[in-house]
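User: structure tokens for this one?
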Amino acid sequence: MSPLRWLVAGLLALGMGSALAGQTLDTVKSRGALNCGVNVGVAGFSLPDSQGTWRGMDADLCRGLAAALFGDASKVRFVPLTAVQRFTALQSGEIDVLIRQTTLTMTRDTTLGLRMVAVNLYDGHGFMVRREASIGDPKGMDGMTICLSPGTTNELVTADWFRTNNLKFTPLLQERMQDNAQALQAGRCDAIGTDATQLAALRSQFTRPGDFVILPQRFSKEPYGPVVRRDDQEWFDVVRWTISALIQAEELGVTSQNAEAMKTSPNPDIRRLLGVDPVLGNGLKLDPAWAINAIRAVGNYGELFERHLGPKTAIGLERGLNRLWTDGGLMYSWPMR
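Assistant:
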């Protein structure tokens, strides 16, 4: 989306935001279910299985938020959205929160009438090409046709990088990343440009994944995180601190399996997190058990990553920057006290 269209959308959303200010938590509780915007389908993030059940890290973050709100992770309605649809759906109130591989940027945070909440995954833009092309240096991509999704940071990053390096490319723009994946396999484009985790997720679904290579270079910072409407600080707090609680749980060694037993810990941080001391839940106007309900439902941050994206999955990603800060990564919970 062009900066002008972002600005127009943001001005419209600001008007809607005032009407919705402070109401989201009450609306969600009254409705009895969370409307959560997710991707239309990317393995490891949000993809319906053969039974129609949404699977993936983003889908489970939606469930974790539902568990924090209702004590029941099933009280969530998944709304699949393309990159073009996602912000409008949030601005209009169709969804309560967007948890859909969305890069947190200044322009999005300041012009759309929305608010970027917190980072739940650190990523970076990359390219995937055919192995037979024998490309190791991205500068060898001069003149290629590159599949991109419109309305994404990847469209801009690709154009900027080629322009900076005085190279040319032809964009093939398609809203659905699955369409880009099919186009690459069919030879209608020579590469896909998007975030590295998404490239790995797409390749895991290919008929012949070994025929394609994800180049090691990264061309941008792409921090993913939930997005909510602006001017509803109460709802912003609920979403931000639920994400933080899952990171804090890993820092403290609290898992989906041991959370109940850990309530007897003498550690004040653990007792606050798990609701033995109700101060955190009171501050969010939630049940004291809000965090332990989320942890028991979907696990701590490390469990989420390993279950959906880690080395033992088809996607096979190392945690890298998404390791805890104590392990050399960037994941760090604000103090929950």
